[in-house]
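User: Here's a structure from my thesis project, written as structure tokens. My advisor, Dr. K., wants to see whether a designed sequence matches the one we expressed. Can you design one independently, without my sequence as a hint?
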């Protein structure tokens, strides 16, 4: 069974802690790649039992008292997912002997230019014998990748009986070990910045090094928001003998989940830099990598391994999809938020799904609910937000901290604490009362403390509810973090219909006022910068002023870049599904940016 898939030009990126946790079970046998978050071993253990029962696989529970239980649970879950995908993929490849429905769906969803699709249709039309066709299918069809994600920031140290355990038992290192010891041959997506101890731990596992056949069983994908970061991280890993097989460029703001805003570096100019410097990046990293492999006594490839450049964040139409692929010479495009509306791919509980289907622009906003202190995409009306509001109104602040994955804030003991927890908020409110603030100032500071939500439970309970599993620990209040693109999709879609939309065979968006993804991101950055300027106490310090000026200068350069791009690529960027005028939209945003500049004078 091959997991090295080049069939599709899109992938489903990681969606929160829980939403894509079982996506490969639903889409990998169709040749579609997706990414599992491996943060939550508790939910993985529940889902492993669920899928073992469903597919008649043996199940032995792994108790939290078991040594290294977190890594062992992750390994066991990933092996189960692989086994289920193998089973479903085997059935699909052999369906020509039984029912051809699944096979037809697999072929129909491929891009129209796919060699496999063209060859299959040719064989069907020339009346090839079933046996010959069946043999050809078994040889040529491939399953989608079962990739995994570790958010580097989520690396809480572990404690036992009040004693801190060695660093290899931290959350991120345990998750890495869980993946490294699994049977998967796929990629680890590292996101949210560099974590030196996590990156260094990769050196401990043979699967990340070339084998005798110069193959990498397990690969590394870096999620980055600018070229400089990619070069720094790529070089750092190369010195350890670890090759980065893909740089996954993500928009700083025009995406779902936590939003890691850059200093005004926009997606278009960033992708241009990757396009212009890709060969130099590969050569620079390969030289460092080769030396490290020689020192370690590992097999050394004469030529650099393949490096993919991919992108995600705010893509919503076939026009944008094709433009990114062709103009920036990308290998794949991440489609995240739209798949939250595809129950065949991502299971969302009924109440939350209804919220998503009805969401408009004003319902989607950047919130401060994350205990990480990073802005978090949110949608109004989620169960978790309603629960938090009701609790706050009743004066019952904070949440029980059962999972502790976000208990990263230094505080009241050597162990970190979560800023959404009852304990933390109780103590912070006590401190606040001792400050003798005015009523208005007190309310303002109180809201900052009590705005945090329990994301550990909120982002996992939905998948449990959708599969009819017990949520007595997690509760039924779900959080979800769609990107702003959600506003232009409404209702739910079949998997085939969404894939057809991506490839331009149909259009699922009824609205014609959706802005271009570059325009939308620029608009969000201008609003973001304006908000930061407004909330900063005047007069600005020299450091603050310099930061704002650099940010504004980067956006101005971005506007000029887009002005040239839109003129040069007018026909490729014109979207038949949208009546927006790109140049008019750009001029309007240019004026807004100039107005911001006056606030810095």
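Assistant: Designed independently from the structure alone:
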């Amino acid at each position: 069974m091959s997991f090295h898939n080049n069939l599709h030009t899109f992938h489903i990126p990681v969606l929160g802690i829980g939403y894509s946790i079982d996506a490969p079970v639903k889409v990998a046998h169709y040749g579609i790649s997706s990414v599992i978050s491996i943060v939550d071993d508790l939910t993985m253990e529940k889902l492993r039992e669920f899928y073992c029962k469903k597919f008649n696989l043996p199940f032995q529970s792994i108790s939290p008292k078991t040594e290294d239980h977190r890594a062992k649970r992750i390994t066991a879950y990933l092996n189960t997912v692989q086994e289920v995908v193998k089973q479903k993929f085997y059935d699909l490849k052999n369906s020509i002997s039984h029912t051809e429905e699944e096979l037809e769906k697999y072929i129909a969803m491929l891009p129209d230019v796919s060699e496999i699709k063209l060859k299959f249709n040719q064989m069907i039309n020339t009346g090839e014998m079933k046996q010959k066709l069946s043999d050809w299918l078994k040889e040529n069809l491939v399953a989608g990748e079962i990739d995994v994600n570790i958010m580097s920031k989520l690396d809480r140290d572990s404690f036992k009986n009040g004693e801190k355990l060695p660093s290899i038992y931290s959350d991120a290192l345990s998750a890495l070990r869980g993946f490294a010891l699994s049977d998967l041959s796929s990629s680890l997506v590292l996101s949210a910045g560099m974590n030196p101890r996590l990156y260094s731990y990769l050196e401990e596992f043979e699967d990340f090094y070339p084998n005798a056949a110069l193959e990498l069983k397990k690969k590394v994908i870096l999620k980055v928001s600018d070229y400089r970061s990619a070069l720094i991280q790529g070089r750092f890993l190369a010195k350890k003998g670890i090759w980065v097989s893909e740089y996954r460029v993500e928009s700083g703001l025009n995406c779902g989940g936590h939003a890691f805003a850059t200093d005004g570096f926009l997606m278009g100019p960033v992708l241009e830099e990757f396009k212009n410097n890709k060969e130099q990046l590969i050569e620079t990293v390969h030289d460092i990598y080769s030396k490290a492999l020689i020192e370690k006594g590992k097999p050394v490839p004469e030529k650099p391994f393949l490096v993919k450049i991919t992108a995600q964040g705010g893509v919503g139409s076939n026009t944008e999809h094709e433009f990114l692929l062709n103009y920036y010479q990308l290998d794949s495009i991440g489609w995240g938020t739209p798949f939250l509306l595809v129950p065949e791919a991502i299971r969302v509980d009924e109440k939350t799904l209804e919220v998503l289907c009805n969401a408009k622009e004003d319902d989607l906003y950047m919130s401060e609910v994350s205990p990480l202190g990073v802005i978090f995409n949110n949608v109004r009306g989620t169960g978790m937000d309603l629960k938090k509001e009701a609790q706050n109104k009743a004066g019952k602040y904070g949440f029980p901290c059962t999972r502790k994955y976000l208990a990263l804030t230094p505080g009241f003991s050597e162990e970190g604490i979560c800023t959404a927890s009852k304990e933390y908020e109780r103590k912070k409110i006590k401190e606040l009362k001792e400050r003798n603030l005015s009523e208005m100032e007190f309310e303002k500071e109180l809201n900052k403390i009590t705005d945090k939500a329990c994301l550990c439970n909120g982002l996992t309970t939905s998948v449990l509810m959708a599969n009819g599993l017990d949520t007595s620990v997690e509760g039924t209040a779900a959080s979800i973090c769609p990107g702003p693109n959600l506003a232009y999709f409404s209702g739910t879609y079949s998997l085939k219909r969404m894939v057809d939309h991506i490839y331009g065979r149909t259009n699922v968006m009824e609205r014609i006022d959706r802005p271009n993804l570059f325009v939308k991101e620029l608009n969000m950055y201008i609003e973001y910068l304006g908000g930061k300027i407004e909330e900063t106490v005047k007069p600005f310090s020299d450091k603050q002023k310099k930061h704002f000026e650099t940010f504004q200068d980067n956006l101005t350069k971005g506007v000029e870049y887009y002005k040239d791009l839109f003129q040069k690529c007018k026909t490729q960027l014109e979207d038949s599904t949208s009546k927006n005028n790109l140049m008019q939209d750009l001029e309007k945003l240019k004026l807004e940016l100039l107005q911001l500049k006056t606030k810095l004078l």
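When you compare it with your expressed construct, this may help: The mean pLDDT is 95.
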